[in-house]
Amino acid sequence: MDQTFQELRLAWARLRLEVDCGLRRGTWYRVTRFTPTDIFLDVQHCPVPVPRHLLDVLVGRPHRWSVVPRPRDAAKLPPELGAPYAVCPACRARSPLRGSPATLACPRCRGVFVVAWDERYLTEQFAAGEVTARGS
User: Fold this and answer.
1) Domain boundary at 41, 59, 77, which?
2) Are residues 124 and 71 in the same domain?
3) For residue 67, which phi and psi values (nearest 5 degrees)?
4) 56-73: per-residue pLDDT in tens?
5) What is the DSSP secondary structure assignment for residue 78, as one 8-state letter?
């Protein structure tokens, strides 16, 4: 089997920048196709093109909770999620983070995964004031 095709079947991607493009922050989406400028993601069984520069790509299914800083304008997020909150790598459920747990059980899928505290997901952007919660 062609190596590129094999990697495509195993690729996952999530937003690397804080932009308002219809994707949930911290959520990994299965990659369905690559083009020179875009990566197509499976979003609710529909292929959605996203510019490559907006995405982190991973070969293989993610196995760690994404730790997501709360956006400045968090009108759509329930306040009980807190800041930061976590996104399950298996089912994409969001969960509040109480303390600094090494692992977390998902209330939806019941999977237990390591929390990716070592990742600096979106935190440098917010600290540097490079982008706003709406991507402008």
Assistant:
1) 59
2) yes
3) -100, 115
4) 999 999 999 999 987 766
5) -
